[in-house]
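Objective 1.3, modelling of assemblies. Example input:
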Amino acid sequence: MSTTEADTDAPAFARNDRNRLRRLHERGRYDKASVHAILDAAMICHIAYAIDGQPFCTATAFWREGDRLYWHGSSASRMLRAQRPGLPVCLTVTHLDSLVLARCGFNHSVDYRSAMCFGVAHIVEDPAEKAAALDRMIDRFYPGRAASLRTSTVQELKATTVIGMQIEDAVGKVRSKGVADEEEDYALPIYAARFPVRTVIGAVEPCSRLPAGVPRPDGLDGFTPDRRLDEIMLENHHKYEEP
Amino acid sequence: MSTTEADTDAPAFARNDRNRLRRLHERGRYDKASVHAILDAAMICHIAYAIDGQPFCTATAFWREGDRLYWHGSSASRMLRAQRPGLPVCLTVTHLDSLVLARCGFNHSVDYRSAMCFGVAHIVEDPAEKAAALDRMIDRFYPGRAASLRTSTVQELKATTVIGMQIEDAVGKVRSKGVADEEEDYALPIYAARFPVRTVIGAVEPCSRLPAGVPRPDGLDGFTPDRRLDEIMLENHHKYEEP
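Predicted structure (C-alpha cells):
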C-alpha cells in the first residue's frame, strides 16, 4: 500500500486503498502542498495505532520536516520499544472552521480542513539525534527559543521518547462552502446560517516567578492576543523551515 | 478487558490494561462525571479503528446519551457493514486550553482536557431508530432545531450511517497547572509563560438566500460571538439531557 522511496520528490501523494476518499471526492486534496499547509497550521494531532487488535487514539504535539513527521511522549512509546519493525499509524490533523446550519438535517455540516497521514512509526534511538529533534520541536513552535533554555539533563532526555514517521501517503479533506441546501429548499421559511469557529490565543500570562527584568523574547511576537493559532503555527513553521 | 453490564450504574470506570495511565497518574480521571464533562463540551472527536491491521484516525461530530456514544457518516461505515460483530474503536476528545513555555525543553507542555473511550461500534440499522437518533443529534447541538427543519427524505436517511457504541471503559486526562519548572530553575533569567488558547464562535453569517422575515430561532441564543464553543456545547448538552 505504500509509495516507494522514489516518490518523495513527487508533488502529490499516490492514491491507494487507504488514502482514497470513498465519497465526497470534491473535498479530497492529494497534492503535498495542500496536505502540508493543513499539517503545518497545527500543533496538536491525533494518532491512531492498534495493539493486538485494540485501537488507541492519542492526542499529541507534532511537527513536520519535509516528508517526515515527529512527535514525542506518546503513550505508544512503551509498546513501540517492543516492536523494532515499527508500528503502523495514522496521524490526523483537523481544523474546525465553522458550523453549518442548513434547512434539513442531511445538509447540516461543518467547514473544516483535515489531513490523514499514513506510515510506520519508529523511535529515534540515537541520543544526539533525539536531543537535536527536541530542540527543533521547540524552535518550530517558538522561533529561536531552544538556544535560550536551560540545557536538558541526561535524565530528562532519557525520560523523553521521540517518534518519527515517514509519510508514505496522505490525503487532505477540505469543506469551505458554508450553507449548501437543495435548490427547492431555499424558499422554505427555515433559518440557515454559518457560525464561524476559530481557535485563538488569549492574553499572555507570564510566570508569576519570573525574575525582574527578564524580557519577552522577540521570537514570540507572533503570539498576539486574539490571533488565530493556526495562522501563528503556519507562520512559525515557515520561519523554522526558512530561517 | 471490558466492564460488565452491571457496571453501567457505577460512578467510575474500572481501570484495566487499556485505560490505565502509564505515567503522570495525577492527570487521570476515571470518574464518569469528569469524563462526561470533557465529552459533552465537544462537538468533534477523533476515532481510531483498524482494518486488517491498518489503523485509521477519523474526525467526526459525535454526541453522548448516557453510557452510549453516537456518530454518523464515518468513513468506517463501509467496513462496518461487513462486520456484524462490530468494530473495536477508541473515541478521543481533546480540548487544548493553553501553551506552556517553561525554562527547559522538558517542562514545555500544554494544558488540556482529553477523554479516551473504548468500545465496539455498531451500525444503527433500524430506519426509525436511525431517524430519531439524527433528530437527537441536531437537537443536542442546536436546542429545539430538529422540529423546525424540512423532514428528511428516504434517500437522505439511506445515505446516512449512524453508528453507536457503548462506552465499556474510558479515561480522562487533565493538565491545568500552567508553568511548572524545577525549583532551581525559577531563578534563571529565562522567559516563561502560559499562553491561553480558546476555541470561539465568530459573528454569525445568515444564509444569503434566507427569505425575508425568517427569524433566528431562540434555541440558538447560546451562540454569541466570541463565546467559547466548549461552554456552548456543554450548555446545549444539558438542555438536551434535561429539557
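Chain A touches chain B through 95 residues (CB under 8 Å).
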